[in-house]
Design goal:
The protein has 566 residues and is α/β, with parallel strands linked by helices. The chain has 18 helices and 17 strands. The protein has helices spanning 50-57, 72-81, 85-88, 110-116, 118-128, 134-140, 157-160, 175-178, 205-222, 249-252, 272-280, 289-319, 351-354, 384-393, 492-505, 508-526, 532-542, 548-559; strands spanning 23-29, 60-62, 65-66, 144-150, 164-165, 196-197, 232-237, 245-246, 326-332, 355-356, 358-361, 373-375, 379-380, 435-439, 448-453, 456-461, 473-476. It has an 8-stranded mixed β-sheet with strand order 5-4-7-1-9-11-2-12, sandwiched between helices. Strands 14-15-16-17 form a 4-stranded antiparallel β-sheet, with helices on one face. It has a 3-stranded mixed β-sheet with strand order 10-3-13. The longest helix is centred in the middle third of the chain and has 31 residues, at 289-319.
Amino acid sequence: MLSSLFALALAAPFDAAGKERGNILFLMCDSMDGRVLDPTSDVSSRVEMKYFRGLAADGVNFVRTYAANPQCVPSRTTMFTGRHTHEIKAWSNSMGLAGDVLKGGDAVDRKCVTDYGKKTCERIARQQNVTFTMTGSLHHVGMSSHLFGKVDVGGGIMQENTHATMDGFHHGPDLTIFGRTANIERVTHKDVMEDVDDKDNFVHPEDWKMFPQCVDKIKEFSKVSKEDAAQWMLYCSVNIPHPAFQTNATWLAYVNDNVPLPAWNAKADFHPADKYMSISKNIWREFTDKEVLKVRRTYYAMCAETDFILGQVLKALDNHGFAENTWVVFLSDHGENNMEHRQILKNSHYEASSRVPMIIRPPMGMTGVRRGAVETSLTSLLDVLPTLVDMAQTDLHAGIKAGNWQPKGLDGLSVLPLVAETPPHGSKYPADRSVAAQYHANMGNTGSFMYRSGDWKYIAFGRGATDPTYTAQLFNVTADPDEVHDVAAAYPDVAASLDAALRKVIPYDAADAEARASDFAMFEEYFGGKSDAALRKKFASNFKGFDDNDWAKVKAWVASKAQYGA
């Protein structure tokens, strides 16, 4: 287990073999639609973001990067482990990594114990069987990690990083998650217009408090002599542009006037999975154009604010002399639907929700690397761990090489070969890379699974095994960037081929069944002992408008042991 290697002395920028290794500045945000920084997308014209675009001008902009799971905790746990959700079994925001990965053995995350009890956390930790994370892997190759801001992973990470926030266990046992497959088609979220404020002059104080701490840490690093310096990774993560939608005139000034209304299909043409999600998110009602545009413009203004905040950390890095020997990475954990497909938040596999920005700036003193490049190869947040580990071992003078140490069992790939001007000999990055993703949480009444290959995106649903209305979807994302034309019926051979490829990566019937069984076990443990009256009251408090028909669904779902409800 990598935790047993933490006693290794941390490498200085020059290692024992005389190789100069770089530091890493890891900038992260939450809920940024990757298209806002894709110069090939019309979405990028909607908001000015000079710092991130400047970063891209000096590095490589990976414009086709996808979350492996479009929700905070599931996405971040896959990123921190380099493994798919069905392998690490951190299915939803209610359950991050239960084991204390840093301590190893039978130790469990303290917040998990607070929310669920030690016995349950020990059981889940054994099921998850996660023995290393990104920080442990970097320690193994001699790099210290310093985490500031939103982590949201669990795994004991917050217990070792006093400046980290968000624990990976949102609200504890959650009926909207554990009871999702009972198919209660009701509202679970406040009206979005109650969540929008475009005249808030005190926005996102937690993020404004966090970034000076990162700046101070950079100043601290700058005071260490080169002889005494140790190789470091500084992780600075903000919560915005995650909703609530809050901004003011300062940031709205960065939003251009060309923000369009989203393309919505007629309600009668909605896929049942999308209809359920839209109802759950309280977006199924009719909206005025003014309301829709207020949400959308506020979101883009929050993207501009994100750019400014993290830009101050980037400026501090450069101003204190670290640009020459420090890698810079910027990305988001997932996107934001921003009223597309009658949705807000994330949770779906549409581009706005699942596609994320990822920019890598190599050390400015490094040669043989691409700068100002727009990379269109498909990439995944699963690639973050192996990429950082590769960076930590790269000799800044010898350049990017293949064959560095990596943890075993990763689902992601290092993207550093795509940063090199000439791919290194022995590079394993495939020219025709495809990526896959999955989702198993609240606001969705079914597991959903995505496979992205070439121009195509294929989406399958767990409920489709028993409900013929939950047909798989197929989109040509190049020809139909708004994803409003499902062409599965017109291209059955393409759909069948992508389904077979998806099943090789994620055996989705089995993954869906396992996630449902996990949810139901948690439902029985935390809600199963309630009387009918108490349980019905609990459902009614979580699903607005819950009625006798819904209660009948719940009773049938309980009797079926989490088979899909009617």
